[in-house]
Amino acid sequence: MNHLPLIIKREYLTKVRNKSFVVMTILSPLIMIGLILLVTYLSQLNNNKVKTVAILDESGVIKELFEDTETTKYHRFDNVTLENAKQISKEKEYYGLLHIDELSNLENISKHVNFYSEDSPSLTLISDLEFKLGEELTNLKMIEEDIDLQKIEASKISVNINQENFSGEKTSKIDSMTKIAFGVATGYLLFMFIIIYGNMIMRSVIEEKTSRIVEIIISSVKPVQLMLGKIIGTSLAGVTQFVIWIVLGSILMVVLPLVLGIDLSQMQTPQQQVLQQAVESQGSGDLLQSIFFAVRSLPLLNLVIAFVLFFLSGYLLYSSLYAAIGAAVDNETDTQQFMLPIIMPLILAVYVGGFTVIEDPHGTVSTIFSFIPLTSPVVMLMRIPFGVPIWQQVLSLMILIGTFMFTVWFAAKIYRVGILMYGKKTSYKELIKWIKY
Amino acid sequence: MNNLLEAHSVSKKFGNFTALNNASIAVPEGSIFGLLGPNGAGKTTLIRIINQITMPDTGQVLLDGQALQPHHIKDIGYLPEERGLYKSMKVGEQALYLAQLKGMQKTEAKKRLLEWFERLDIGDWWNKKIQELSKGMAQKIQFVVTVLHEPKLLIFDEPFSGFDPINANIIKDEILRLKNEGATVIFSTHRMESVEELCDHIALLHKSNKILDGNLMAIKKQYKTNTYEVGINAENHGVVERALAERFSTTAADFRTIGNELKLNVKLSEKDTANDLLSYLTTQGQVSHFVELIPSVNDIFIEAVKNN
Questions:
Q1: Does any CB of chain B come closer than 8 Å to the CB of residue A420?
Q2: What's the confidence (pLDDT) of residue A273?
Q3: Which of A84, A97, B150, B283 fits A116 for a cystine, CB–CB 3.0-4.6 Å?
């Protein structure tokens, strides 16, 4: 008798109707978007405060170097001593005082520049000052050495390498960025999915054990069926939750800023700046359009198919392990010792994916990790946007599916024995013994 | 009488531990069969094998003459010793789910459930969650779920644990009613007293071995020692005692009476009958007490374990 649909239906409905599940589904995007808005708002608030920096230049090298900006104003002291300047800066609550001592020659100027402030100054401000001073002084030095500045300016050549692969497809920095974004997004998605819903499966197995209903169920259905039903039912609930999150999140992302009047484009991440620069240097101007073309140039069909296959088998592999753990223990606190071997490869996969793959998608480390079954789903998904030969994908998938079938068999064994073991603290040794039962 | 269930030389090992060693039982159709033994004797293992939860290492189990197959689960109703229900699921929904797992149609299951709920006075629990019910109430639901699909074979593992006396009685009556309607019942317990009043047949398990089985009355006959408990009022207790000891083998007995008579256990030899003893006693004094000692299941069990 096939009870799988019945079990899946029950698992799905109990998960979806669960109050905390409903609350989490609705609240999570609210909290996430709320946090993003809060951070944006706070950073705007932070930047809006105008800083005044006092300058005491006893050397006379900088004249009109520093111009007031929206957030920083400069106040020049003339004919005061350093002590007085400090005193005044403190009284007027200036952000700080930049002091350039008298100097005999330009070479050892670095020893003669000081910045005084109440608290330690912000890093960006200091590096900004350093950059401007350095540039100005270099120019001064060149003039001193009788070098024609205009000639230097005229002889500067800007290079922007056009990338093209052997079969003639053009690539660019935007393309790489898009690939990284795709890879990281899919990799993290799988990671999150495994952690959240794997845990949910484990808890639901433990619940059946602690409520002692499992023996009644097992007298009607095969343990493997129950296990698969749980995994599939919970996953469907997970997909439902994810879809609601995405839809709700997108709506909120658009509606909330309008209502609250916060400009999200103010929040620029470093990556965005790099992207912006890349676009500008290419001269194509429109960021959105470039991204659109970059996405179009991705191996989309391959990506979608690989995503579905790797996501499914990777997720099933991990969730059957979670189910086995749930069956092996009596309560959630006992799960710790078994969790480590599951979490470790996952974290490793994300790290390898996050660093190595982005650095060199086809390097030895990335390639090897995209074949090891416990890390391959995440790492391979991150590699695929960069173009992985089909044979590698197929081989990796075969290994993954092979391992997945072995794990399900193994987990089912543990599950079958474990669910009927009450009140015992299980060790690894015991688990090995169960396989032989 | 046909045997509904037969187990032939069933063995099961867990690692180095032998849970069941070559056990065979035969459960006659329409009987209440007591599967007895102390904790850890292998009762639950045998029951799980019958329920196809665990597979035997060797041996075979036949239901209705057929080797056990997956479809047989709908012919069996099982109430495990470790039992419970989904705490956060509603009573009705949960009972329907479990009934469907046993292969029942939803509409049929619902109809029968409502009948049962009415009979056991639990009609208005349909939309309550299990966690809102008391333990005894949950046990009642569990009982209903076990018998709902009207299986040929019912297996109860310690059915009365967790019930108060009133509800235990209700359940006992229901078990007897089901038996009268034709169901066969396997009843596993280590409480011998409930066996006395319910079981027709028993099997004793001890340390993974079956040490005794058969019809309860036949076993009692086999284990009775032809001993009679006797109370007699005579002028001189000592004289009567000596005279009796000459003809029969006697030991001192201890039972409660209102008088001050001589109390003895008298064991008859094979050629003597109860009438011989009684007529002899009447010549010695006033007989106030004369009962044949029938061994209790408990006595038989202890005896059987000792002989093994």
A1: yes
A2: 55
A3: A97
What is the C-alpha to C-alpha distance for residues A350 and A368, in angstroms, rounded to an integer?
A: 14
The count of other CB atoms within 10 Å of the CB of residue A431 is 18
DSSP class of residue A352? I
Residues B239 and B216 in one domain: no
Structural domain harbouring A73: 50-146
Nearest-Cα distance to chain A for B257, in Å, is 49
Q: How far apart are CA B274 and CA B229, in angstroms?
A: 11
Is residue A271 scored above 60 in pLDDT? no
* Confidence class for position B160, pLDDT limits 50, 70, 90: confident
Residue B299 lies in a domain: no
**DSSP code for B211:** E
Question: Which pair of tokens denotes residue A58?
Answer: 């006893």
Tell me what pLDDT residue A437 has. 63
B contacts of A435 (beta carbons < 8 Å): none
Residue B101 sits at the chain A interface (C-beta within 8 Å): yes
At A192, the amino acid letter reads: M
The C-alpha angle B10, B15, B19, rounded to 5 degrees, equals: 35
pLDDT for res A144:
79
Q: Could you give the CA distance from residue B29 to residue B64 in angstroms, rounded to a whole number? A: 9
CB contact under 8 A, A6 and B100: yes
Mean pLDDT value across chain B: 88
- Tally of structural domains, chain A: 2
The structure's pTM equals 0.75
Q: Which of B236, B53, B267 is nearest to A437 (CA)?
A: B53
Rounded to 5°, the CA angle A268-A270-A384 comes to: 115
Name the token pair of A5: 């649909």
Tokens for A361, please give them: 């998608």
Question: Domain check: are A256 and A311 in the same one?
Answer: yes
Residue with tokens 């991440």: A269
- Residues B40 and B42: their CA atoms lie apart, in Å, by 6
Q: Are residues A91 and A190 in the same domain?
A: no
Mean residue pLDDT across chain A: 80
Q: What SS3 class is residue B42?
A: coil
Which residue in this structure is represented by tokens 């037969």? B6
| Parent domain of B231 | 225-292
**Does some domain include residue A27?**
no
